TrEMBL record:
It comes from Hydrogenophaga electricum. SUPFAM superfamilies: ATPase domain of HSP90 chaperone/DNA topoisomerase II/histidine kinase (SSF55874), Homodimeric domain of signal transducing histidine kinase (SSF47384), PYP-like sensor domain (PAS domain) (SSF55785). It catalyses: ATP + protein L-histidine = ADP + protein N-phospho-L-histidine. It is an enzyme of class 2 (transferase). This is histidine kinase. The keyword Transmembrane applies. CDD domains: HisKA (cd00082), PAS (cd00130). The keyword Ubl conjugation does not apply. Its EC number is 2.7.13.3. Keywords: ATP-binding, Coiled coil, Kinase, Membrane, Nucleotide-binding, Phosphoprotein, Transferase, Transmembrane, Transmembrane helix, Two-component regulatory system. Residues 221-273, 339-397 form the PAC domain. Residues 147-217 form the PAS domain. PROSITE patterns: HIS_KIN (PS50109), PAC (PS50113), PAS (PS50112). InterPro entries: BphY/WalK/GraS-like, HATPase_C_sf, HATPase_dom, His_kinase_dom, HisK_dim/P_dom, HisK_dim/P_sf, KdpD_sf, KdpD_TM.
Length: 650
C-alpha cells in the first residue's frame, strides 16, 4: 500500500551525526547541562594554553568554540554559562598580571570582552534558535506521523470497505474490510477494476453516475449495488462515492465507501414477504387492519383494506366513524371505546350503516401507551360478520322452533308412553284373569275326574303348562318395561362379589353338576346395584344353562381391555351360537336354540342389554358353535361422558 514518507526520529542504531542533528538539550537536567558546559570550558582553557602562549592574540577563540559546543549540548543556558565563565578565565588566567583581575588597559579589555560577549550571544542564540526550530520540526514530523498512522488505522480498521479508484475503474488502494467483503486479497484487487467485482446488472448505473461526477453534474453519489465474491456468492452493499481533486483542481481519483447490507436486504425481503403474506391472509379472512392516532383523532386503514368492509374511504375522524355506526349501537360503541382506553383491549360486534344498508362488523383493538399509561395509538382489525350474524339469528330461530317442536313431541311421546304403560298393565291384568280361569278349570277337571284316560290327562297337563308359560311371558314383558321406567341410582357395586354369590346359588340349585367357575377379584363399577344384579343373573344363568351339556364346563367373569377401554366379560365354553343369526340375540322372545335343547323364554338377553343401555354402556357378544360364547359390556360412569368404543362383535 502506498504510504507517505516522513523523516523518522533517530534510534539507538542511528549514526552519530543523525543523533547529533536531532539532539534535544531540554531532555537533560540543568545541573547536567551546566556541568558539561564547565568541563567543555575548562577543556578549552587547557587547549588554549597548550596551543599558544597566553599573551598571544586570539585568546577568546577557544572559549568561543567552548560556548558553541556548550550551547549545542545544553542549550542557551549552558552556552551563556560557558561564555561568562570563559570571560572570567580569560581575564583571570590569560591576561597579565595572572591570577588576578587587574587590567592594565581597561579600554582594550572592555572592547574585547564586549565583542566576545556580543558575538557569543549571537552564536549561542542562533544555536538555541536552531535547536528550537529543530524541536518544532520534529514535533511537526511526529504529528504528521501520528496523523498518518491514525489515517492508516482508520482506513484499515474501518467497519466499512474503503477503496481508492481511478477514473478507468482500476482499484488503487483498498482496506482489509473490503478485501473480506469480496473475498480477494490486496494483491489480487490491485490488478482488478471495480467492474470485475460488480454484478453485471449493476455496472451500467454505476458508470453513468461516475460520468456525471466527472462532468461536474454532481460531487458524489450513493446507490445500492451487488458485488460478486471470489467464491461466487453475491453480496449487497450500500456504495457512497466522492471525487478527490488535485491541488490545481483537476480530478485525481474516487473514494468509495462500501457498507455490507446483505443481512439488511434479507431482512427487508423477509419483511416484504411477511407483509405480503399478512395482506393475503387478511384478504382471505376478510380482515381490514386499522391504525388510530388517539391524540390526532385520525383513524386510517392499511393497504386499502377498508374496501373489504364496503367503506367509501380509508381515513376517518372519531366523529365520522361514530356517525356510520348504527344508531342503536352508537352509545354502546362509544361507551365501550372509552372504557377500553383505560384498560388494554377493545373487542365487540356492532352494526354499521352504509348507503342505507346495515352490516355487522366485529372489531378488536389493542393500545400503545406512553410512560404515564395513557393510550396514544391503537391497532385494530375489523371483519364483516354480517353473514355469520344472519346465520346466528337463523340458528336461534330454528333452535327456538326446534325446541318448541321437541317439547311438543316429548309431550306427545310421554302421553303415548303413559297410555302404552296403562295399556300394558291393563292387558297384563286382563290376560292374567282368563289364564287363572283356564288353569283353574284344568286342575278342577283333573281332580274331579280321576277316571279320565291317559290321553285326557296329557291334554290337561299341556293346557296347564301353556297357561303357566304364558304367565311367565307376561311377567317377562312387565319386567322389561319396568327396567325402562325405573329411576337409575348409581352406587359403588362390587361385581366380583355379586357374581360369586350368584354362581354359588346356581351351584346349590344343581348340586349334581361340576362346573369350573372363576371370578376375577376386585371388579368394581359405579352403577345401580339392583339392575347390575339382574344383569349378571341373566348372563350367568345363560352361561350355566348353555354349559349343561358340556362335560367339562367352565365359566369365567373377568375384565378385558379392548382399544384401551375396560369391558366386563362373562365367558363360557358351552353350546355357543352361530354369528350369522346373532342379530336376533338381543331381541325379546327370539331364541337361537330349539326349546327341546335348552329351556327358556328368550327374554333374558334383551333384559340384560336394556340394563346396559340404561347405564350408557354397550353390550356385545362373540361365539363359535360348540366352543362357547363371551358377552362383553360396559357400565359408563356418569362422571365420564366419553362413549366407549364397540369391540368387534355384534
Amino acid at each position: 500500500m502506498k504510504r507517505l514518507i516522513t523523516e523518522a526520529a533517530p534510534t539507538a542504531d542511528s549514526p552519530w551525526w543523525l543523533k547529533l542533528l536531532h539532539w534535544q538539550p531540554d531532555r537533560l537536567r540543568l545541573w547536567q547541562r551546566l556541568g558539561m558546559a564547565l568541563l567543555i570550558t575548562l577543556a578549552a582553557l587547557w587547549l588554549r594554553q597548550g596551543l599558544a602562549p597566553a599573551e598571544s592574540g586570539g585568546r577568546f577563540i577557544t572559549f568561543s568554540l567552548a560556548a558553541a559546543l556548550s550551547a549545542l549540548y545544553g542549550g542557551f543556558a549552558a552556552g551563556l554559562f560557558s561564555t561568562l565563565l570563559g570571560m572570567v578565565l580569560v581575564n583571570f588566567l590569560l591576561v597579565h598580571p595572572y591570577f588576578q583581575l587587574a587590567i592594565t588597559n581597561p579600554a582594550e579589555a572592555f572592547w574585547l570582552n564586549t565583542w566576545f560577549l556580543v558575538t557569543q550571544l549571537v552564536v549561542v542564540g542562533a544555536i538555541w534558535r536552531m535547536q528550537a526550530q529543530n524541536r518544532q520540526l520534529q514535533e511537526s514530523n511526529q504529528h504528521i506521523r501520528d496523523s498518518q498512522q491514525h489515517f492508516l488505522d482508520t482506513f484499515e480498521h474501518a467497519a466499512a470497505g474503503i477503496t481508492h479508484v481511478g477514473f478507468d475503474g482500476q482499484l488503487q488502494r483498498v482496506n482489509g474490510t473490503f478485501c473480506r467483503l469480496v473475498g480477494y486479497s490486496f494483491e489480487e484487487l490491485r490488478q482488478m477494476r471495480f467492474q470485475d467485482l460488480t454484478h453485471p446488472d449493476d455496472i451500467g448505473p454505476d458508470e453513468v453516475l461516475i460520468k456525471q461526477v466527472l462532468a461536474g453534474e454532481r460531487s458524489s453519489y450513493s446507490l445500492e449495488k451487488r458485488y460478486r465474491r471470489k467464491d461466487g456468492r453475491t453480496v449487497w452493499a450500500h456504495l457512497t462515492v466522492s471525487m478527490v481533486r488535485k491541488p490545481n483542481g483537476l480530478p485525481d481519483y474516487l473514494i468509495s465507501v462500501v457498507q455490507d447490507i446483505t443481512s439488511l436486504k434479507a431482512a427487508e425481503e423477509t419483511v416484504r414477504t411477511n407483509e405480503r403474506l399478512l395482506r393475503q391472509a387478511q384478504a382471505l379472512s376478510g380482515f381490514a387492519s386499522w391504525e388510530a392516532d388517539i391524540k390526532g383523532d385520525r383513524i386510517r386503514a392499511h393497504h386499502n383494506s377498508h374496501q373489504r368492509l364496503g367503506l367509501p374511504k380509508g381515513e376517518y375522524t372519531s366523529t365520522e366513524l361514530l356517525n356510520i355506526v348504527h344508531p342503536r349501537d352508537r352509545d354502546r360503541f362509544a361507551a365501550e371505546w372509552r372504557a377500553a382506553l383505560k384498560s388494554t383491549l377493545f373487542n365487540g360486534n356492532y352494526r354499521i350503516r352504509i348507503d342505507g344498508k346495515d352490516r355487522w362488523v366485529g372489531i378488536r383493538a389493542e393500545f400503545e401507551r406512553n410512560a404515564d399509561g395513557h393510550a396514544v395509538r391503537a391497532f385494530a382489525v375489523a371483519q364483516d360478520i354480517t353473514d355469520r350474524k344472519r346465520a346466528e339469528i337463523e340458528i336461534r330461530r330454528l333452535n327456538a322452533s326446534l325446541e318448541q317442536r321437541i317439547q311438543e313431541r316429548t309431550r306427545k311421546l310421554r302421553a303415548a308412553y303413559d297410555e302404552l304403560e296403562s295399556y300394558s298393565y291393563a292387558v297384563a291384568h286382563d290376560l292374567r284373569s282368563p289364564l287363572r280361569v283356564i288353569n283353574g278349570f284344568a286342575q278342577a277337571l283333573e281332580e274331579d275326574n280321576p277316571a279320565l284316560d291317559a290321553v285326557s290327562h296329557k291334554h290337561l297337563a299341556r293346557i296347564m303348562g301353556a297357561s303357566k308359560k304364558m304367565g311367565e311371558l307376561i311377567d317377562g314383558l312387565l319386567q322389561l318395561a319396568q327396567i325402562g321406567r325405573s329411576d337409575l341410582r348409581r352406587e359403588p357395586v362390587n361385581i366380583s362379589q355379586v357374581s360369586t354369590r350368584l354362581l354359588e346359588d346356581l351351584a346349590l340349585q344343581t348340586p349334581e353338576r361340576r362346573v369350573d367357575w372363576r371370578v376375577e377379584p376386585h371388579l368394581q363399577a359405579q352403577a345401580d346395584p339392583a339392575l347390575v344384579e339382574a344383569l349378571l343373573q341373566n348372563l350367568l344363568h345363560n352361561a350355566w344353562k348353555y354349559t349343561s351339556q358340556t362335560p367339562e364346563a367352565r365359566i369365567r367373569v373377568y375384565e378385558d381391555i379392548v382399544d384401551g377401554q375396560p369391558f366386563y366379560c362373562v365367558s363360557d365354553n358351552g353350546a355357543g351360537f352361530d354369528m350369522k343369526r346373532a342379530e336376533k340375540l338381543f331381541q325379546p322372545f327370539q331364541r337361537l336354540h330349539q326349546p327341546h335343547e335348552f329351556a327358556g323364554l328368550g327374554i333374558g338377553l334383551a333384559t340384560a342389554q336394556r340394563i346396559v343401555q340404561r347405564h350408557g354402556g354397550v353390550m356385545t357378544a362373540v361365539s363359535t358353535p360348540g366352543q362357547g360364547a363371551t358377552f362383553r359390556f360396559t357400565l359408563r360412569d356418569e362422571d365420564n361422558e366419553s362413549l366407549p368404543s364397540v369391540p368387534p362383535s355384534i
